[in-house]
């Protein structure tokens, strides 16, 4: 199940496994990943076997459904938390049918190299592939729809002191964008972005940690229900 296209130079393709109980969704994910040069080493219909797979076959990333058999509740999140508890740093991209901020915060709390994405994003291959690359590299990804729900919550009193531009920067920061990514998205200089972030952190009372994941998690925890 190895994809050739999209690999750069002599670098080996990223090794990815998929765990989702929908055969159609697994097939769609695999098709997208193969087309973008990933090596899909396994496709599982439940959380069973994920730990053994990671122990036996070095993975760069795992695309994991949140709700799987037998209860269809939080099986995927339990797998993620067990992996991090065991010391695994494999990138994990959690997939969900619904924009559930509490699940996103729980997923990001597991540690770096973690993402939370709606399944609809698979229809946008570039965004989906970027998310897989990001978690495989130890970065963070949070679905824009989830971030929009959090930032737009009327009860988020801490947001009232932010300017409109600072809210735009905060939204991109919570999505896991780097300073450079925010600058490119808003057509701002890097220095201007850094100034905005410093102001946001001061107004929200968050330590401006150099770690991108810790910064995202801090923002999500502040904005979360």
Q: Calculate the terminal CA-CA distance, rounded to whole Å.
A: 41 Å
Strand/helix succession: EHEHEHEHEHEHHHHH
Q: How many DSSP helices? A: 10
The percent range for helix content is 40-55%
Largest sheet data: 6 strands, parallel
Gyration radius, in Å: 18 Å
Mean pLDDT: 85
Large-scale geometry: globular
Which range does the strand content fall in? 5-15%
- Major sheet: arrangement of strands: 2-1-3-4-5-6
Number of strands: 6
Low-confidence stretches: 1-8
Give the class from helix and strand content and strand pairing.
alpha/beta
Question: Summarize this, please?
Answer:
This protein is an alpha/beta fold. Helix content is 47%, strand content 13%. A six-stranded parallel sheet has the order 2-1-3-4-5-6, sandwiched between helices.
Structure write-up:
- It contains ten helices and six strands.
- The protein has 225 residues and is an alpha/beta fold.
- The protein has a six-stranded parallel sheet with strand order 2-1-3-4-5-6, with helices on both faces.
- Strand 1, helix 1 and strand 2 form a beta-alpha-beta unit.
- The longest helix is centred in the last third of the chain and has 15 residues.
- The radius of gyration is 18 Å and the shape is globular.
């Amino acid at each position: 199940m190895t994809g050739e296209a999209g690999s750069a130079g002599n670098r080996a393709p990223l090794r990815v496994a998929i765990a989702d109980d929908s055969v159609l969704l697994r097939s769609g994910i695999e098709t997208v990943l193969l087309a973008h040069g990933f090596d899909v080493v396994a496709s599982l219909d439940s959380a069973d076997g994920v730990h053994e797979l990671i122990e036996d076959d070095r993975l760069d990333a795992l695309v994991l459904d949140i709700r799987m058999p037998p209860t269809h509740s939080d099986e995927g999140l339990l797998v993620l938390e067990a992996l991090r508890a065991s010391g695994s740093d494999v990138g994990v991209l959690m997939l969900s049918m619904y924009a559930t901020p509490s699940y996103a915060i729980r997923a990001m709390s597991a540690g770096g190299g973690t993402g939370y994405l709606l399944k609809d994003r698979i229809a946008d291959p570039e965004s989906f592939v970027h998310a897989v690359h990001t978690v495989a590299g130890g970065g963070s990804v949070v679905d824009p729809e989830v971030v929009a729900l959090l930032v737009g919550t009327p009860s988020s009193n801490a947001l009232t002191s932010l300017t409109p531009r600072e809210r735009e920067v905060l939204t991109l920061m919570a999505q896991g964008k780097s300073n450079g990514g925010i600058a490119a998205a808003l057509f701002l200089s890097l220095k201007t972005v850094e100034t905005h972030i410093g102001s946001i952190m001061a107004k929200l009372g968050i330590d401006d940690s150099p770690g991108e994941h810790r910064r995202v998690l801090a923002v999500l925890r502040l904005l979360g229900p």
